Amino acid sequence: TSLLLMAGVVVAVGLCKRLTRRRLRAHQRLCAFLLEMLSTFQVCACTNELCLLGDVEPKPHTALTLTYGFTVLHGMTLTGSMCNPCGTLQPMWGGGMSVRTGAFKIGAQFVAAVLARAFMRFVWSLEMAQPHLGALSQGCSNPMQTTEVQAFCIELLFSVVFQLIILRVESVNPKYKVHLIALLITMLVYAGGNLTGAIFNPALAFSLHLNCFYDKFLSYSLVYWIAPSLGKFLILYVF
């Protein structure tokens, strides 16, 4: 049921993006906002559901396989979208995107994060699958299973590694590039998923752990917003 739900989200987002391009071709700014919002919605909604499948046996093989598979699927269906505020910083830093346009895209990503969270909580309330039982009563799932300093360093390191590899594979054939990136994300999730969740995406972190940001805003914003953004700026400054 969970797999069908995530597949349905991917199909629905694809249809909505096609309709958006067709109907809003003359309104480029609104079209760009909606396309970025829809793409980020897909990533956040599917990842919310994947988090519920982390305890499915055999652990962690099932969760890692699904992570790899859906990362490949996202890469193939969301071409041209950032889905990550840190990724939006790169063209802004290089002058390829104005600050206004970049802020517009980041706003779309966080709007999508909130909408995906609300949508998934509605789906979970229907209790269509076993993992959905009790999902609404979890509150803050507390993904940080280590100290705040260590969590900050882990997310910073993962962001640096991820952004560095992204730069190194820019010239790779897109057919193979999507698999390399999916493999990298799966490896990072395996290495640090039990400590911080290995998210390195501020919008996705906000969608996954919205209640945690409400309860402990300062610590969670430092780990899941400042650390990955700082990692991105370090890579941009060095390279």
From TrEMBL:
For this UniProt record, give its keywords in alphabetical order, as a comma-separated list: Membrane, Transmembrane, Transmembrane helix
Q: How is this protein situated with respect to the membrane?
A: Multi-pass membrane protein
Kindly list the residue ranges recorded as spanning the membrane.
Answer: 149-169, 181-205, 217-238
Among the entry's GO cellular component annotations, what is one?
A: cytoplasm
Q: Where in the cell is it found?
A: Membrane
Q: Which SUPFAM superfamilies match?
A: Aquaporin-like
What domain of life does the UniProt record list for this protein's source? Eukaryota
Keyword hit for Transmembrane: yes
> Gene3D superfamilies recorded for this chain?
Glycerol uptake facilitator protein
Listed Pfam families: MIP
Task: Enumerate the InterPro entries for this protein.
Answer: AQP11/12_channel, Aquaporin-like, Aquaporin_11, Aquaporin_11/12, MIP
Q: GO molecular function of the protein, one example?
A: channel activity
- State the family it belongs to: Belongs to the MIP/aquaporin (TC 1.A.8) family. AQP11/AQP12 subfamily.
Report what the protein is called. Answer: AQP11 protein
Q: Which organism is it from?
A: Corythaixoides concolor
